[in-house]
Specification:
- This is Dihydrofolate synthase/folylpolyglutamate synthase.
- Keywords: ATP-binding, Folate biosynthesis, Ligase, Magnesium, Metal-binding, Nucleotide-binding.
- One of its GO terms (molecular function) is tetrahydrofolylpolyglutamate synthase activity.
- The protein is α/β, with parallel strands linked by helices.
- The protein folds into two domains: about 5-280, Mur-like, catalytic domain (UDP-N-acetylmuramoyl-L-alanine:D-glutamate ligase); about 285-420, Mur ligase, C-terminal domain (Protein-Tyrosine Phosphatase, Chain A), CATH 3.90.190.20.
- The chain has 16 helices and 17 strands.
- The strands form three sheets. An eight-stranded mixed beta sheet has the order 4-3-2-5-1-6-7-8, sandwiched between helices. A six-stranded mixed beta sheet has the order 12-13-17-14-15-16, sandwiched between helices.
- Helix 7 (about 175-180) runs parallel beside helix 8 (about 200-210).
- It is globular.
- The model has no long low-confidence stretch (mean pLDDT about 95).
Length: about 425
Amino acid sequence: MSHTDAILDRLMALHPKVIDLSLDRMHRLLGALGNPERSIPPVIHVAGTNGKGSTQAMIRAGLEAGGKRVHAYTSPHLARFHERIRLAGDLIPEADLAAVLEECEAANDGQPITFFEITTAAAFLAFSRVPADYTLLEVGLGGRLDATNVIDEPALTVITPISIDHTQYLGDTLPLIAGEKAGIIKRTVPCIVGPQQDEALRVIENRASGLAAPLFVHGQHWQIARDRDGMVYQDDFGLWDLPLPNLIGPHQIQNAGAALAALRHLNATDAQALAAVTQAEWPARMQRLRHGPLVDLAGPQAELWLDGGHNPAGGEALAATFETLPSRPTHLVCGMLNTKDIAGYLRPLAPFAETLTAIDIPGEPNTLPAAETAKAAESVGITTRTATDAASAIAAIIETAPQARILICGSLYLAGRILRENG
């Protein structure tokens, strides 16, 4: 166990609830640390249900192509906690991470605080000590009461598509969830709004109106559409004729639009717009695995893919992606958390899946048992079986379908485990 792993284990025990949305504990700890969040570079704050990470990755690629130094905060991590914190473009070094975690632990002095809150405070501390031009903050959950929502005057906010998810924390209707996401909107600060259902957009518009925050809304102020083998982005300032995003899937065109709208407001050049859609990297979002022991196990004729989507909107995005791929027998290996709408996620995938092999997520206390995942898959018409782990599932699929397209899916926690297993 590394030094930072030992610290992170201690921090996990500071609060009985993993998720407990509130800003009180965050303000207390930041005050004890000297309010480092007030000293970080200009913030671009990103909320939404789906597409936050991809949109942030494209904004970062565009800014960095213009020579900007960019901090970035995202969650959850996949293989290593260090992925959550980028300092001026690079993953935070082990020694720096250990130092800010220990400083936050000491300042907290054993008081109750969630793991996400104290590690977010550590990120702010790290960001305040390294010069940069911008700070990209991805909301962890919701927005209004998320630990990242302590920035009073961001440079820009971005709200990606909102759909039903995390109902136990955010509410069980789209307007309630949209109200939580719209909580990142700040007085007079411009907000980029991705494609939204009417119910969600009305909530966003009402919040922005009360705060005199200018909105730049998809379909009203900016548009993006596929055009042959590329795409065209257009707003009041002009047009960008660009290739398709290197991140795979039709939904990434919408994410690219939000990123490009943000970059436009940051005075990006044509070259930066091109870099945003061609140089962004974001693992476990319809990622083709090409090397490693799991790829070797699948064999040279098979395709092995990985995706961390986990809600109905994520299932719909995957289904739309399958529509664009060459026809090939497709088999799913799926593990999910017990807090998710399993059938809602799998229903859009049913027409494309010949089989689904259900597995537990290793080491995850909130994993849905494989048998229950299989039962949900059967309820939407998918032929199912179970396996003890991903490697066993892949081996069983390849026995009868050596040329299969295999997609491991259902959870970012599973995706992280797969990336570690695959080296």
